[in-house]
C-alpha cells in the first residue's frame, strides 16, 4: 500500500513538473464571440486620490460594456500591502470601493512591489475569497479563453534593487528566494505555456513596466530577462501598472505593444522621460482601460475619472486556418 502511494506521489510530482508551475483558469466568452474586460492598477488607498471616482466610472462603463472580468496589474494595497488576512484595508480599499453590480466579476490580480512589502501570503490566501468572492490573486498563472490567453507574471522578484537595496522597506520573499532560481523556473514555465497556447491572441500581464516614460521608466531586468521570451513566442501585448499613468508604447523592433494602466488612484503628474520606443499615448492622471477582444480584433480604450474616452486603439489579425 505504502509503495503504491509513494509511486502515486512520484507520478504526480513528475506530472506537475512536466506541466510547469502555472495554474490555469478558464473564462467563457460571450455568445456573440467577444470578451470585454477592464484593466486597472495601483489602486488601494481607501478611496483617496480619486480611487473612488475611478471606481464609479468603472461601474458605469462596466455596465454598458458588460465586463466579463477585471485585471488588476498590482500594487493592490498601499503603502505596504496587507498586514494579514484580517487587515481592514482589504474591505476599505477593495470591497467597499468597487461596489457597482457590473464589477462583481472575478478580479484577476498580480502582486506589485508595494504588496511585497506586506504579508504576501495573506494576499494570496483563499480566506480573502471568503470575504469577497471577486478577489483572486496569485503570483503567476494563466487565464484561458477562446479568443485570448492571459499569462500573468510575478515581476517584483525580477527587480534587483529590491533585493540588494531595500532601503528601509522589508520585502516578503517567503517561497521566492533565492531570486535567480525563481526567475529561471518562472521563465521556463512561461516559455512552455506560451508554446502550448493555441489562442488567437497572447497577452502577458505583469506589475512592472517594460517600457514607460513616467516616473519609474523602463525596467531593465524585464527588458533583458523577460522580453526575449515574449518576443520568441509572438506575444501581442504586455500589460502593466507600476507607473501611475495611462500609456501606450509600440516596440520598434517587434510587433509587441506595451500598455500601462496604473491610474487606479494616486497619479504622477508632470513626470516624463522619453525612451527609445515609439510613444503613442500618455496621460499622467487617473483612469483605467477597457479591452474588447474577438478572435480577430482587439479594441482598447483609456478613460479618465469622468468616464471620458481619452484614447482608443485597435488591432486585427487574420485567423490562420489549419488545413
Ligand atoms: C482627481 O482628478 C482630477 C481630474 O483629473 C484632478 O484635477 C485632481 O487633482 C485629482 N485629485 C487627486 C487628489 O489626485
From TrEMBL:
The keyword Secreted applies. Residues 1-20 form the signal peptide. It catalyses: a phosphate monoester + H2O = an alcohol + phosphate. Residues 36-245 form the Calcineurin-like phosphoesterase domain. Pfam families: Metallophos. GO terms for molecular function: acid phosphatase activity; metal ion binding. InterPro entries: Acid_PPase (IPR024927), Calcineurin-like_PHP (IPR004843), Metallo-depent_PP-like (IPR029052), Metallophosphoesterase_PAP (IPR051558). Its cofactor is Fe cation. It is found in: Secreted. Keywords: Glycoprotein, Hydrolase, Iron, Metal-binding, Secreted, Signal, Zinc. Its EC number is 3.1.3.2. Binds 2 iron ions per subunit. Fe cation 2 binds at residues 75, 113, 207, 242. One of its GO terms (cellular component) is extracellular region. Fe cation 1 binds at residues 42, 75, 78, 244. Belongs to the metallophosphoesterase superfamily. Purple acid phosphatase family. PANTHER family: TARTRATE-RESISTANT ACID PHOSPHATASE TYPE 5. This is Purple acid phosphatase.
